[in-house]
Amino acid sequence: MQKRIIVGYDGSSWSHDALVWALEEAERTGDPVELVYADEWPVLAPAASMVPSPAVRPESNAAQVIDGTLSRAVEAARKTHPLVPVTATTLRAHAAAALTERSAQARLLVLGGRGHSAVAGLLGSVTVAVTAHARCPVVVVRGATPVTGPVVVGIDDTVTAAGVLAFAAEQARARKAPLSVIHAWPPVTGIWAETPMATGTVTEQERAPFDSQVTLVRDTFPDLRIDADAVVEHPAAALTRVSDGAQLLVVGSRGRGALRGLLLGSVSQHLLRHSACPVAIVHDRLAMS
Fold first, then answer.
1. What is the pLDDT of residues 74-85, one digit of tens each?
2. Which residues does the UniProt record annotate as the domain UspA (predicted)?
3. Can you give the pTM of this predicted structure?
């Protein structure tokens, strides 16, 4: 079965932004697009019935509202992108669980930057959960989506960097955009700040693995313009800075944190909140496959 681009869609403005981004991507790749709406009420209703004043949803109307919202979105998408096959599906499940399970059938999962957060500036709980557990790369559409500018990728020296870099190179080639590769080393702080270790520069020995990775992708994508920069700066700060004007920011995630496997890495979480452009998260297990 052909892999598809799946869009988490709930009729909100940020899910519409995600749909527009996905349609543009599908025009480049030839993939079909599927809108997925998670109807959480059947899952939440039993718990709601336990409170003194149970919440009531008019079931006769609910299906019509959901179907109408999805039908209008599909119709509009077919008008603006007539060559892209577009369908819609409603799943009765928690949004995060539904999208994570559906991602096993996807080449790419696209979400809006707000998710289920009612507070401006906070990352939605659905977005956090899905980006942490999806079985395909996830793009979170936020900030500006310029049609010019580079694709930026942040890498490190781990074995997953090659896969993250290859994903970014494919994105740049499809867009006919330059690729900007960034490796940021956090500055030396604390008790080491006044020692010779705190040079503020990247040595040739330190950047040798980075240069090798860049050389490999240059050989693999000979027609792609590639700029490489090794800097001494916190990775989150460096990548947030270069996201301004970029078409897409690509990073890997190993899910490190106090609850490994439940949380994204700190750099990924920072970028999902502060990047000036859409962010693609490629997990370690996907980058190594």
1. 999 999 999 999
2. 1-142, 150-283
3. 0.85
